[in-house]
Batch of 3 targets.
Target 1
Amino acid sequence: MVIQKQIYTSDEFRAFCEQPENKNRLFELIDGEIVEKVGSFTPSKLAIRIARHVGNFADEHDIGNVTGADGTYILSPRHHFMPDVGYISKERLPNDPPREVQGPPDFAVEVKSPNDTKREMRKKAEDYLAFGTRLVWLVFPDDQEVEVYVPSEDVKTVKIDGVLSGGDVLPGFTLAVKDIFK
């Protein structure tokens, strides 16, 4: 949900988020517009399920960090994204930042909430790729499928009986789509 049709800078966005009335709310900056992330039970449950699998893999191989829906990545001064699940390699981020990550996640997962449109989600996936994210999964609970975005490749749709791959971002990682939608 766009809060106000106005273009904000990073500093203005931070000031907005720090206002007392916004203390317990989550916002993203998309194309300079402030968009509130509205929570929803099923998308949250699915994101946590994915994060658990990715996080266990990352921890087991000691290769990087996984964030949830409040982990902020600053892709540009007009793009502050909070993927439902984010991953960034230790190579790119050896130490935890004090607040947010300056730069894109290596891997981002967005789970469709009731307020999201597929068009908005697909635009966001393209934005992730444009700013350097190397793998994006868009998860559609109603369809029980996942769209996979990789730079310079066609979008691939993986249905309930398929298996997702971490590609060159998480080599060796796989996740059956049915395990997301148990």
Note: The chain is about 25% helix and 30% strand.
Target 2
Amino acid sequence: MKSNLKVLTTLSLLLYVFAFSKPFTTTAQDSLPLAADLEPTILVKWMQLLYDRIEAEKISAPAASRLYAYAGVTAYQSILPGMPDGISMSGQVTALPDMPWIDEEKSYDWISVENGALSTVFAGLFPETAADTQNAITALRDAEAKARIGALDEQTVEDSLAYGEEVAAVILEWVASDNFAETRTMTWDIPAGDPSLWVITAEGMKPVEPFWGQIRPFALYSADACAVQPNLTFEETDGSSFYLQALEVKETGDNLTNEQKDIARFWVDTPGETGTPAGHWILIENQVIDILDLKLERASMMYGLVGLALGDSFISAWSLKYQVNLLRPVTYIQNYIDKNWKPFIASPGFPEYPSGHSVVSEAAAEVLTGMFGTVAFTDRSGRKHNLGERSFTSFEAAATEAAISRLYGGIHYRAAIENGMRQGRCIGRNVLDYITLRSQPQGE
């Protein structure tokens, strides 16, 4: 009797488990890897292409940061269905709408989804008249699609490309509402009549993006949410704090070591000659993938979060630049200290305060450190422009060197550098605190 009861109990338990478990069947999608199991080579290729085309098209530093930010959002959002624990940026990033979802009856290759999404967004971000860039985008998309068709069935690749394009279409609609187009027709007259105000420092120079502070932020609730107001009062008097700040720039520039010159060149990131300061951090991210052996999931998170910080950094910095509108060191030094003085690096066409490179570098370093902790690395991105490589014990060390390079270059006062780093740290922390991509720590 006990034996029969035991058999019945066991049978009942098996029936219960069977009734409330998923059917013992698999779908086509179940046989394909998740984003966490795939290599991120597709992302590195597209981010490198974006850097190269920004350089070739001579895009300004603020405008470049916008493109890198949208690329990061696209990289993450397009493969969200391939990350079971992933949380959408929709509802977190400013005005980002809900994204289309996959067809559960189809199977998807997340590498091909990235290819479809990034190629479509990039094509939409650059004008149709940029023929070389549009051709480069098409060539990379076609080459990557052909490679995936060789590894998977053609229908899966086509469905994946199509889904990526659906996501891209929604993102491009969002892009179109960020106020970029409206700022193209605005005009700005350089204020005059106050000796503290910025003036052009080269013949024919035009102010760069004076209305960039009106571009819609990504994670900041307003352009000035992290602004660090200047704590240094303009003075012409010999021995005043402002005079001494300018004197430091002059004396540093007059006595540069070879190492300091190398640092100034390594981080100059001149638009039109490079992929800009924000792009320098994109190249660092490309290297971090190899250093930390990241897979597609974590790599897309990195590009997404750092991209938000890059975009917000230039909106924040440029908003404050044109409010403070402070003159460059070369102008002050030539007016009050040495009329023949020249900086090591030519001053760019926008107001001095705060240091944009200090803001963006510290913001990027804050996000990368928040995701991955203290990571020593060698930045080999300078090889592209014959600038060699530099090694750092942490992301913060790299950001600190990027910031001080502006003093060596003679284009920023120390106050703009130090306060710029504070501003960037706030921007990076804001991204980490308010954008959640999964419930567990985002870098693990």
Note: The chain has two domains: 38-180, 194-295+325-434.
Target 3
Amino acid sequence: MRTITLEEQEQIKSIIQKCKVCYVGMSDEKGVPYVLPMNFGFLGNIIYLHSAQEGKSISILDKNPKVCITFCTEPELVWQNEEVACSYRVRSESIICNGEVVFEEDYDEKVKALDIIMRQYSDRDFNYSEPSVKNVKIWKVDIQEISAREYGVPGVKAIKYKDRFI
């Protein structure tokens, strides 16, 4: 199994757009990690997230806004020889990024953020009720560091057979 580092921005953007969930990691004041699966939107260098106004994550982020966000495409089991266990591998792509959460409080900016989040899942336009917008917590994460990898890449000596590398 080979792992390739990806650096092209369009390729990184494409991987993020394939994902339906991201995982947001944070640490409380005792250094205990807390990770949440979340829906998201992505535009430019910003990841947009949403949640309730209160809860464990909000309490943690009020004290330490630093987060690590990961994305992973749907893993695919592949092999070189169906009879040989060590020839099996999982192919996928992943992104790890770090940044700091800033909570968006401006009503119009919250609507824009919700539109960006919804575009990740649908091409439709949506309307939001005023209470919904006021009661949602919008997280903006400006990506400060990002790394991308592709896992389970066939070796240079692999042979393609019936749309599969062997």
Note: The chain has a mean pLDDT of 88.
